[in-house]
Each structure stands twice: as structure tokens, then as C-alpha cells.
Design brief:
alpha+beta; binds FE2/S2 (inorganic) cluster; 20% strand; Ubiquitin-like (UB roll); 106 residues; five-stranded mixed β-sheet; 2 helices; 5 strands
């Protein structure tokens, strides 16, 4: 599944992601800068904050309450497109989705 990571400065990097993996894991395992994943995917750190293209909202893993609460701790501005990367599982329907990275994760 092709995902496009875009930095806050607009630099894009295409990554060949595996369905079933989460976005944080995919970014970290491909060495994408700008996403940290300090807690290892437990929705406990908010250093995997990303902005997902609203056009794909219908195919995203639904947001659990713990994720909404943890996003309050994110370093960068939280918007309607904000998600914790570790809480979104990749599916084939996400082909070509742009994952925007925030200015900062701390
Ligand atoms: Fe810690 Fe996602 S990796 S909240």
C-alpha cells in the first residue's frame, strides 16, 4: 500500500507500507523523520501525531477515547485531521494517502 509522508516543510517521501501495520510503525521502520513513537504504539505518548487526508476519513480505523485524550498532549496543533499514527491500521483502501507530519512531536 503506497503511503506518502509529507513533512511540515512540504517534503514528500513515498513508502511501500504493509496492510495491517500501523502508520507509526511503518514510518519508524522506514526511517521517516518527524514521527517518534516513543511509547511503542500504546497510545501513551502522542509522539506519533500525524494529520491524515480528510478524503480518506471513511476508511480510517475509528478513533477510540484514549486516542482523543492523548492527542490533547500532542506538541503541535491538533486539528480535525489529527490522529495518533499508532492507532491507525493500514488497509488497501489507503492507497496513495498523504500522511502529513507536524512541526514537532515534543
Ligand atoms: Fe505513543 Fe502512538 S506511539 S501514542
Amino acid at each position: 500500500v503506497k503511503l506518502i509522508f509529507e513533512t511540515a516543510q512540504g517534503q514528500r517521501r513515498e513508502v511501500d507500507a504493509r496492510a495491517g501495520d500501523n502508520i507509526m510503525f511503518t514510518a519508524v521502520s522506514h526511517g521517516v523523520d518527524g514521527i517518534v513513537g516513543e511509547c511503542g504504539g500504546a497510545a501513551m505518548c502522542a509522539t506519533c501525531h500525524v494529520y491524515l487526508d480528510p478524503a480518506f476519513a471513511a476508511v480510517l480505523t475509528p478513533k477510540q477515547e484514549i486516542e482523543t485524550e492523548m492527542l490533547d498532549c500532542a506538541a503541535a496543533e491538533v486539528t480535525g485531521a489529527s490522529r495518533l499514527g499508532c492507532q491507525v491500521q493500514i488497509t488497501p483502501e489507503m492507497e496513495g494517502m498523504v500522511v502529513r507530519l507536524p512541526e514537532a512531536q515534543y
